[in-house]
C-alpha cells in the first residue's frame, strides 16, 4: 500500500522560511528589496547609486544583510528633509 504525499508535506512552514531568510549573510536584490518592503527597481537604483552597498560573488550581485541595516542607520542619522508644518 503506497502513501500519497501532498505538496503541503514538502513545503517549509512560514517560520522555517523566515528563519532561513533572516539568517542569510547575503541576499539577492529581490530578497533585499522584499526585506526593506520596496520594489525591485527601487532596490536596483539604490544599489547602482551606491546608497546600498553590494558585492559581486563570481557573476552574481549580492547585498550583504548588514548593508541594509547600514542603509537604514544612515537614513535615521540624516537630517530630516521634511519642512515643519508651521
TrEMBL record:
GO MF annotations in UniProt: DNA binding
InterPro entries attached to this UniProt entry: HTH_17, SinI_DNA-bd
Protein origin, superkingdom: Bacteria
Pfam families with a match to the protein in the record: HTH_17
Residue stretches making up the Helix-turn-helix domain: 26-73
Signal peptide start-end: none
NCBIfam families per the UniProt record, alphabetical: excise (TIGR01764)
Entry protein name: Helix-turn-helix domain-containing protein
Gene source species: Polymorphospora rubra
Amino acid at each position: 500500500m503506497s502513501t500519497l504525499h501532498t505538496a503541503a508535506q514538502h513545503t517549509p512552514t512560514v517560520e522555517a522560511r523566515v528563519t532561513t531568510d533572516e539568517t542569510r549573510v547575503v541576499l539577492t536584490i529581490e530578497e533585499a528589496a522584499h526585506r526593506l518592503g520596496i520594489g525591485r527597481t527601487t532596490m536596483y537604483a539604490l544599489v547602482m547609486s551606491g546608497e546600498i552597498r553590494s558585492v559581486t560573488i563570481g557573476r552574481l550581485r549580492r547585498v550583504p544583510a548588514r548593508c541594509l541595516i547600514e542603509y537604514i542607520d544612515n537614513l535615521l542619522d540624516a537630517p530630516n528633509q521634511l519642512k515643519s508644518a508651521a
